[in-house]
Design the sequence.
C-alpha cells in the first residue's frame, strides 16, 4: 500500500509539471484516506488556485488551517483565494498579516502583503480624491508602507525574483524611476531572460545610444540571443535597424 508521504510527493511532482488536474485527483484520494493531512490540503489548495478554481482553493486552504492555524503556505493561498471569491483586499490583507505574524522571517509573506497594501492605499488615495484616474499626484500621495514591506521582502529573500517584481511594480506605479532601474537590474542578475526587465533595460540602453544606431541594434540583438521569443525586444530591434538603415542612406 502506498504511503501518504509518497502520494504527496507524487502529487507535488505532477503540480510542478503543470498537471494540476492529475495532482487534484491524487490529493483528493489521499485526503479521503487521511482527512487531517495538513500538507495535502495545502497542496490541493495550490492546485485549485492554478486551475482558477478559487472557491475550491479557499475551501481547501481553510481545511488546512483547521488542521494547523499557523500553516503559512495555506495562509498565502487563502489570501489570493479569498480576494478572488469576493472577500476583497481587506480580507486578503488580514490573512497576509497573519502569515507575517506566524513567519516573520519568511520573505514571501512580506512580498504578497506589500502588493496588497500598495493596491489598497492607491485605491484609497484615488477614492479620497474623487477620481478613478491614477494621476501622478495621486501616486505621489500613496503612503510608503507597501514599498517598505517590499524592501523587507528583498532583505529576507535577496535571491527571490518575485520579491523584486513586487518592489518593481510599486516603484513603477509610484513613478520612482531610479528605484525601478535598480529592481530591474537586480531581477536580471537573478534571471537574465526575465521578459519584462530584459526588454525595458534594453530599451533604456538603446535610447541612451539612439544617436548611435548601430550600437542600439547590437544591444537588441544581444538581448534577443538570450530571449529569442521576446516580442518587445524583436520590435525594438526592428525599429533600431530601421534607424540604422535610414542613417546609412
Sequence:
Amino acid at each position: 500500500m502506498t504511503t501518504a508521504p509518497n502520494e504527496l510527493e507524487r502529487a507535488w511532482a505532477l503540480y510542478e509539471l503543470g498537471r494540476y488536474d492529475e495532482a487534484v485527483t491524487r490529493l483528493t484520494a489521499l485526503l479521503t484516506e487521511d482527512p487531517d493531512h495538513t500538507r495535502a490540503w495545502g497542496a490541493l489548495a495550490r492546485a485549485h488556485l492554478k486551475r482558477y478554481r478559487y472557491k475550491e482553493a479557499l475551501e481547501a486552504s481553510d481545511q488546512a488551517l483547521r488542521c494547523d492555524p499557523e500553516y503559512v503556505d495555506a495562509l498565502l493561498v487563502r489570501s489570493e483565494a479569498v480576494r478572488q471569491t469576493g472577500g476583497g483586499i481587506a480580507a486578503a490583507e488580514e490573512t497576509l498579516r497573519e502569515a507575517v505574524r506566524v513567519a516573520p522571517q519568511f520573505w514571501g509573506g512580506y512580498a504578497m502583503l506589500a502588493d496588497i497594501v500598495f493596491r489598497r492605499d492607491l485605491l484609497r488615495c484615488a477614492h479620497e480624491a474623487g477620481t478613478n484616474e491614477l494621476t501622478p499626484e495621486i501616486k505621489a500621495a500613496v503612503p510608503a508602507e507597501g514599498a517598505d514591506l517590499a524592501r523587507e521582502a528583498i532583505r529576507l529573500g535577496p535571491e527571490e525574483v518575485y520579491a523584486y517584481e513586487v518592489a518593481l511594480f510599486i516603484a513603477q506605479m509610484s513613478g520612482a524611476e531610479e528605484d525601478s532601474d535598480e529592481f530591474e537590474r537586480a531581477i536580471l542578475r537573478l534571471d537574465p531572460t526575465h521578459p519584462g526587465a530584459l526588454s525595458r533595460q534594453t530599451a533604456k540602453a538603446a535610447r541612451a545610444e539612439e544617436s548611435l544606431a548601430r550600437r542600439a541594434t547590437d544591444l537588441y540583438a544581444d538581448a534577443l540571443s538570450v530571449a529569442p521569443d521576446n516580442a518587445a525586444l524583436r520590435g525594438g530591434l526592428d525599429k533600431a535597424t530601421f534607424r540604422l538603415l535610414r542613417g546609412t542612406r
Observations:
- Residues 114 and 146 are 4 Å apart (CA to CA).
- The chain has a mean pLDDT of 87.
- The two ends are 76 Å apart (CA to CA).
- DSSP finds 13 helices and no strands in the chain.
